[in-house]
Fold these 2 entries.
Entry 1:
Amino acid sequence: VFNAFFVPKHREPESSGYEDTTLRHPSYVRSRGGSDWAAETELISSPLEYAHLIINYHKTGHELAYSLQELVLSNFPDMERENGARPRQHPSTAQRCSHIELPPGKVVVQEAPHFFCDTNNLAEMLLENKGRFHREGEQRIPKRGVKILHLVRDPFSMAISNYNYHSQDPTPEGWVKDKTRNICGKKEFFGDTLAELLLPTLVSPGVDFDKPPIVGKEEFDMLYDKCNRLFRAQRGFEDESYYFHLRQLDPSHGIKLSTLQQMVNGGDIFLMANNIIKLNQIRTIQSRVNDINDGGNTMKSKYDKIQILTMSLSDFTHYPRRSTLKYLNFVYGNALSREEKGRIATQYENAYVERVETGDLHITHGNDNEEMLRKALQNDMIGKYLGNIESVVSETLAADEQSKK
């Protein structure tokens, strides 16, 4: 869901903040409005040679992810969508990463995937090429690599949006009224709890294991305990639903309960941190291999098989045109002309602003209670772990921005 805190008051400049090194495909240069000299001076490459994956989480841009998917599909011939929502959960004890089929030329949206396998297995899954044959013949279309857009968010804003979303009247999701649902229970996946799957990464979040832990085992258990002290613990609340709690608890307690649910039961806040770290590990290892192969000089991103662009939801809500143009450059490279990408980004911005101004229900607006809710989290033990995740998010966004300069 878009989370619009304000509507842009002016149109943005042409700069996208991202210049991709993917090369231009001559046939598309001519068909999509590019100049003839580009076909003579640049090598052949196409978005069809890559799989495209958009990762999001609850309250980091569900609606945005599908809008971007549609944007890519509608402006380039022969690209395909992944139909229907994919299960986020990993398939077995042997394979602890969500199985995502990523053939070249396909644009896949995946919400909150489980990336619990080791880094090598994750990279192999992302690069595996099943399906997508040439229309004539039995040979598979070559897969040059995968381009991943990772939509993330400041965890405090993510938690506040989650609380405001589920506590509104009427609630947009019926499951919150299910009185049989224990929103503080320990989820298990093939005998492993969510904590057991997350902790190997969250305890040692750096590639060289030189970063402080985000959360430890004892602290994870304390979060479970705190959740259960808030849920069905008061007189009159014993048999009530999660929604009843959100509506009846003081907001300073309601925000803590909903955030704990999103951390230890739904898991999306910790899953976001886990997956940022896993993808950062792939990127770091890949850079080292490139350095060695290039005699110590860092190679350009066109040689990387797994390309990762991490963007914050706030980028799209504050700067819709600039952010969309940045993503279009990442996906298309120079296969579309600069003018064409600018036109698409402007069209997207206009449609987004119109939706905000007309009060589209799919766009969650800021609320007057945000400052109070943020302070309630910051002054609680929960704030420590959200702060740790906030640091990971901020460092990753800063490093991603720096690498594109």
Note: The longest helix spans residues 268-293.
Entry 2:
Amino acid sequence: VISGKPFSALAALILASNNAADAFSIGPSSSRRGVVVATKLSMGGGGMDAYDAQMKAMAAGGSTSPAVEEAATEMLDATRTAATISNSITSPASVGANIGSGRGSHLGDVDPSSAIASFEASQAKMVAEIASSIPDLAKKDDASYGPPTKAGYFTVKGHAVKLDASDAPGPANVAWLSDLCIDETLSSLTIYNGPLADVPHLISRCVITGGDEEDGGDAELNFFLDFRPRAYGAYDLRDAAGNYPGPDTLGRQAFEYSGARKDFDTKFGTEEVVAFFEDIRGKFEGAVDNPGLGDEGLSELESLTRGPMAMDVTMPLSANNVETILTAREKAASLWLSWALDDSHAHRPGAPINSQYVYDSKYKINAYGVLLDVYVKLFGQAEGEKLAAADSGPIDEAYVGGGS
């Protein structure tokens, strides 16, 4: 927290750009900048000692800002270093080619413009329904983008970023809602819950690559959908077969993590919801799964933040696939809203809320690191950084809610 105001990812970006080496120095500065996976805030697994230490430090100091600021800076530096040293940040054209490699060509029967327009209209309907059901949800003009908002104006791939940010502190318990759209390019809905309940965060994102003069090739659509658990269940330790390490590996903590997974499955990852995900997958045409939990191709930060049902698929841009995604996204938003309005998911006052806040603070910085990597790879370093900062919202906000 700087001058008593929430410290946001955008502030991290601005300060880091002005003085990347020491923008967030609290004590003696360090010239070492680790890779992204080395800057994560431990959430469990092999990092439980660090997790416990962070819990105690936060409780004693009343703020997570130093750790969050340092991690955010190192995440930015890591992507910049990768771009400079290994030239791994490729152009949008080569990124689109990499995503679709090995899948063959398919000329979609809809174009990027009409597809994103459909996603935008549907998303506006979803957000309107949420707002009508949660009257306290209020627009955050200082965190919204696109003329004539106050926060500023920037473009991605030549298109204006349109982002309506909202929140509903207190009993409504919505810490951050990002309604994001970029013409012909991206549609994304992100909802982070406050600490008063254990309702999963919602990530619903569609990105179109290829299909224009700049990118070349046939248009492809990446769809990512996830309900993200609010407690550590060792999902990052799941193997490709879906198995988790037991007490012989993790000791007594294996039962704690197993209990967290059972609690999530009982409340949210029910048979009905699992069947919904499976049904959507079965309706896609030509879809290919991207690396998921247990796969070697998934980064450590991705593994730490993903939920057990996460869907990450790339497919041809077609009318059927667009319609299937529209249905999936609307159903997912409806599920989230039903959970958010269900008082049975509320935490008891006191320690459970405080513990949830601490966990959420670390989740947000890890999720920011994931989003930063995704957007930089898709849109390049400069535009990717700005978009990740805007879409992530406040990384370490003094959000305590009305029942804490």
Note: The chain has twelve helices and eleven strands.
